[in-house]
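STRUCTURE REQUEST FORM
Protein name: Olfactory receptor
Source organism: Myodes glareolus
Requested output: structure tokens
Priority: standard
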Amino acid sequence: MTHSLVQNSRNSSSHSTFFILLGIPGLENYQFWVALPFCVMYILAVTGNVTILHIIRIDHTLHGPMYLFLAMLATTDLVLSSSTQPKMLAILWFHDHKIEYHACLIQVFFIHAFSSVESGVLMAMALDRYVAICFPLRHSSILTTSVVVKLGTAVMVRGLLWVSPFCFMISRMPFCPNKVIPQSYCEHMAVLKLVCADTKINRGYGLFVAFSVASFDLIVISVSYVMILRAVLRLPSGEARLKAFGTCASHIGVSLTLYIPALFTFLTHRFGHHVPHVVHIMFANVYLLVPPMLNPIIYGVRTKQIRDRVIQGCCRKGP
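Status: completed
Returned output:
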């Protein structure tokens, strides 16, 4: 099956209007079963994030900065996971390997733009926690609704402006006869490898975007949590310190599930020639699916106000 797809792709014109996504090369005989946990995680991600958005929308007491940032995160997670998972499941279950040229570029745009947005929202949420814990009496005056909207807009505009040149530059380049992408979705570097032209500018710009976004956001997140931990250590109650440490640890853990697989995938495309391809592809899927699944639990259900609303909703539906 894979061999025939590759051969057909090579025989097509260099101006072909489609690409071939192989799915998870090396696991062809197990792709049906590999897709099952991916499907479960996607359902959990959609259910969790839609629930968070619904609760925040209907409860006017949850329109403070933390919940507005949480709504932005939930929206970003829905876009990020839905931009890849339905097509990936179609590949693994129904062998629907073809993806139209413009659909592939749209996927590139959504994956990278909303990964940047997700990183920015996590940074904004870390700043919100820093202000709430270190300056509790001034929190409402510092993080007003206007400031929250401006932060969210800045994060969104950064993602759109930084990533748009990816698609523009790729769309103007000639592709080789081989249109096979050996993974389950269209990613910038994977598509760039099919170009029959000098791609130094594209690669350099990709490095700039990845490291400028990740380094800036990680520095802000790290400094925020260091300041939060310093404030937590001054708390007189041991129980309060443990609770705060647990919250910080879970938030940092979720952030790392985005940054570590994303950077691993990004660097492997460029330098990891000896990394097994199956490992690379699995990590590439993890960073687009695991954070959207975990975020509603860590940032949502563990928040008392949202947890109470979820419990109330379940009780109303009960016998």
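Reviewer notes: Residues 6-15 have pLDDT under 50 and may be disordered. The first helix runs from residue 2 to 11.
Form closed.
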